[in-house]
Amino acid sequence: MIPGRVVGAGRDMAEASERLRIAAAQTAPILMDKEANLTGIADYLERAAEAGADLVVFPECALTGYAIADIVEAREMAEPVPGPSTESIERLCRRLGCWAVIGLIESSERNLYNTAVLVGPGGIAARHRKAHLPHQGFDRFAMRGGGPLRVHDTAIGRIGLAICYDIFFPETVRVLTLMGLELLAVPTNWAEGVEFYAMYLSQARAIENHVNLVAANRVGEERGFTFYGRSRIVDSYGRILAEAGGGEELIMAEVDMAEPGRKHVVRIPGEWEIDILRDRRPELYRLICAKGILEEERE
Fold first, then answer.
1. pLDDT tens, 233-287?
2. How far apart, in whole angstroms, are the C-alpha atoms of residue 54 and residue 185?
3. In Å, how far are 45, 55, 299 from 194, measured between CA atoms?
4. Which of 80, 92, 141, 271 has its CA 20 to 30 A from that of 49?
5. CA angle at 39 for the pair 102 and 45, rounded to the nearest 5°
6. What is the pLDDT of residues 74-97, one digit of tens each?
7. How many other C-beta atoms can be found within 10 angstroms of the C-beta atom of residue 144?
8. In this structure, are residues 249 and 231 in contact, taking their beta carbons and an 8 Å threshold?
């Protein structure tokens, strides 16, 4: 998609562009040490808020580490939401006047979830339980998130959450886009061997949906996993606004939260126009949204 004169739905286009300063905290969580990780999160939040960040996104399982060995370790690290750690982060966000997305292991009744929470000055605004689970690390012991996908109306914009492997499935982000998504926050634990996630998927999901995206990866090593960093902040045209290297780092950029509402791009009126929502053909896509239809089509 090539930037041009734009018109479209979403926010009132007469409004001035709304800029949001976002950060990705590329940390190296210590496996099985929530206290140390919470201290590190607090330090990054302080630094980001001092630099003017409105929202800070941390990696997947930032509170606990990811390479959990067994269900006993997983239960030891799990806590409810809200719980002690999210309450601590709430206090920080309230004092600093900023927002944060934190990855943790959530306990709920007898189940464990790989969860991301969106916390603001007013408390927990949203929770997302990872919906797509690879057979590795903590995800071997987690239950798939079964709740509906949601976009969350907040004081800083319409925010969606996805965790790592979730964005391998384009339907995830497209559904959120149809709900009015402006910014997708993606806590990740991308390790060596899947570098294409950072290289291609973050930009692809942003550009194909015309939304802003921040992917916060981690670094360091855990039980055979080597995490490569490369956290990114990408705008709705797929342009990389900020990118981290391979070490612990805080990256920041401003995104335009009004731009994702402008799905109709006009370069030459009547001659060169596209609209990524209006131009869809849902009647052609029924195979991806109906159980059993794949077998029916093959007969």
1. 999 999 999 999 999 999 999 999 999 999 998 999 999 999 999 999 999 998 8
2. 13
3. 28, 27, 36
4. 80
5. 55
6. 999 999 999 999 999 999 999 999
7. 13
8. yes
- Active-site pick, 34, 93, 130, 182: 130
Q: Are 28 and 218 in contact (CB under 8 A)?
A: yes
Enclosing domain of residue 156:
5-298
- Asked about 271 being catalytic, the answer comes back as no
Annotation marks residue 291 as catalytic: no
Statement: the pTM of the whole predicted model exceeds 0.90 = yes
Kindly name the residue from 60, 73, 243, 259 that is annotated as catalytic. 60
Reply yes or no on whether 130 is catalytic. yes
CATH classification at residue 104: 3.60.110.10
Residue 11 has pLDDT above 70, yes or no: no
Count the domains in the chain: 1
Tokens 């990705």, located at residue? 24
